Amino acid sequence: MAEATTNPAEERTIDRSQMTVSDEVAIAIRGMNKWYGTFHVLRDINLTVNRGERIVVCGPSGSGKSTLIRCINALEEHQQGSITVDGTLLSNDLKNIDKIRSEVGMVFQHFNLFPHLSILENCTLAPIWVRKIPRKEAEETAMYFLEKVKIPEQALKYPGQLSGGQQQRVAIARSLCMRPRIMLFDEPTSALDPEMIKEVLDTMIQLAEEGMTMICVTHEMGFARQVANRVIFMDQGQVVEQNEPEAFFNAPRSDRTKLFLSQILGH
Amino acid sequence: MTSISASHAFVRTEILPEQAPPMAQAGVLKWLRENLFSSWFNAILTFISLYVIYWILSHVTGWVFFGIWDAGSLNECREFRDARYDEGARVACWSVLTDRWHQLMFGFYPPEHYWRPILAFAVFGGAIAPVLFDAVPRRMLYVTAAAPFLCYWLLWGGGTIWGPVAVAAGFALPFLVARFGEGVFGSLGVTVMAIIVPILYWLFLAGPMAGALGAVLPIRITSIESNDFGGFMLAFIIGITGIFLSLPLGILLALGRQSDLFIINKFSILFIEVIRGVPLIVWLFTASILLNYFLPPGTNFDLMLRVIIMVTLFAAAYMAEVVRGGLAALPRGQYEGADSLGLDYWQSMRLIILPQALKISIPGIVNTFIALFKDTTLVVFIGLFDPIGLSNAIRATTDWNGIYWELFIFIGLCFFVCCFSMSKYSQYLERKLRRDHR
Ligand SMILES: Nc1ncnc2c1ncn2[C@@H]1O[C@H](COP(=O)(O)OP(=O)(O)OP(=O)(O)O)[C@@H](O)[C@H]1O
Ligand SMILES: [Mg+2]
């Protein structure tokens, strides 16, 4: 397993002073079901995420991980049950949806940067148009976060001129510029080369250290062990097992989990 | 050691001058050998082509360059020719252009008012400059906003300038409503009010306002009927209006066709398929003849206006499909990226999706523009005097009966210059955008 080379957590000690989980509920999913046509993708999902939690979602391909986190910011519509984000109930009301989307940052597997805008414009677009922040202030914020993800010198380039890892860090910075209270990651490193995986994971660890509420779909088990406070295992559209990372990796309870872990860690 | 250094040591004392590469390796000869004479077969083709070019030029050049420019009629042209060259020599009679250029350009527009279309054309030039080229100061966009109304008034005249000004002012109302109405009406209410308020304004306020202003400051020019419009002026008016209206309409239709809203979606599909599925000439006849049956008797709905509407709708249907192709070519991630940041539908379309989709569609869009511009010649069939119609009219006079080539060559050349410029501009635009995005 390439875990050792791709796990920056082993090279640095994680500062846990601000990684505190509060009692305040950030996301509450109750009895949520989703179908694609007649295909039952998500089955009776119940999940409560408290502020400050760092949750890693894993599971075999096609198990509905992406669909689950995409439902949280309404990129996908669910048909049954309720999703409440930061106290706002996700309904068909476009106003609610836009509000939730502007509170919840999302990072995609394929970055989804806007190729016709410079890095800086990518980062200032939403603050200017959604938050109505003056351009100058938005640019300052953008530079602050670009510095944080360690690529301020690329600000005036276009996404196509950056490496994959740099693009993904820009994507993270772009989300952060909206000052989200929750971050969703959908396999942020699985389109990247090992070296770049490290720089992206580093950025994510840094975020976790600052106490960001995060849900990450990822197969970076080193990251899960070090940073997550809870690991969720999904299979066939259901949450099969969830536990603290120690217990999850060392003493998985269900057979599906054991099989999955042996496959992913075994070779 | 000393012996070695004595025989091998070397110091260059002068710099060799730069030399041109040998003739066979560069320049014209190299190019000729590589492109025209690379093989026997190629060489034969080259000679045949040279002969064909020679043959054409030898027949055409004389005809073009010895052409007669100063005659007043075709017969006079022939007399001049016989006097100056051999009897029956083949030379062009360009005099028809010098004699009738004003008709080819302006149709039957009264000559003392030629300054009006010329000025309108200049205003148009000023109006598109900031749209076409970044180097033009952004402040010129105000000219762009004012140009349609000003040009309309210049071309047709009638009434004071305050009519168009009052109408133009109405277009500012939706923005005012959007700016200040949010709190009063709510978000859906604002959309509805942004449509209703200007309509009420145009119906009830614009007229009296223009009247009042006109009484105070009567800036007035004579009215000129659409019937008097003709020639390239007509082609330009129909073509340019069609081009600038069909793009936004086409974009809206393309978005409509993608929309989840049932009625909008079905309406867009129906509109596109019906308009596109019937020849333009049929629509033009519809505009010229059939509409009279449906309109209440006595209404005078300008034929040219009807034609402009038809041409615009026709081009918009094509435009919609071209733009749809661009929209479909964008990866879904772009839509999701925009959504996930909380941009609303119109913001994400305007800022993220359309800039990219339109860039992809540039060749198709310009293609549609060029087709539209050339299709303006079809209006000849419903009795409007476009350049072709005028060439018929000119030929119908005793002076110029029997002249064909010179007129058609001139008309063709003018169209070619316009269409080729559009094509060149689109290539420039593509290059510029490619550099930006990489
Ligand atoms: N738009 C769609 N229409 C129909 N079925 C879909 C659609 N998107 C996903 N699915 C199906 O839903 C199931 C769950 O998909 P999802 O993308 O959530 O899986 P995943 O757990 O993220 O997998 P991976 O690890 O490969 O990303 C899969 O079986 C997939 O085929
Ligand atoms: Mg997935």
Provide a descriptive summary of the structure in words:
The complex is a heterodimer of chains A (about 270) and B (about 450). Chain A has helices at about 5, 65-70, 95-105, 120-130, 135-150, 165-175, 195-210, 220-225, 245-250, 255-265, and strands spanning about 25-35, 40-50, 55-60, 80-85, 90, 105, 180-185, 215, 230-235, 240-245. With about 270 residues, chain A is α/β, with parallel strands linked by helices. In chain A, the strands form two sheets. Chain A has a six-stranded mixed sheet, with helices on both faces. A four-stranded antiparallel sheet of chain A has the order 2-1-4-5, covered by helices on one side. By secondary structure, chain B is an all-alpha fold. Among the domains of chain B are: about 30-65, no CATH class; about 65-110 and about 230-438, MetI-like fold (Orthogonal Bundle). Chain B contains 18 helices and no strands. The model of chain B has no long low-confidence stretch (mean pLDDT about 85). The interface of A and B includes residues 94 and 158 of A. Adenosine-5'-triphosphate binds near residues 39, 64, 65 and 67 of chain A.
How would you briefly describe this protein structure?
The complex is a heterodimer of chains A (267) and B (438). Chain A has 267 residues and is an alpha/beta fold.
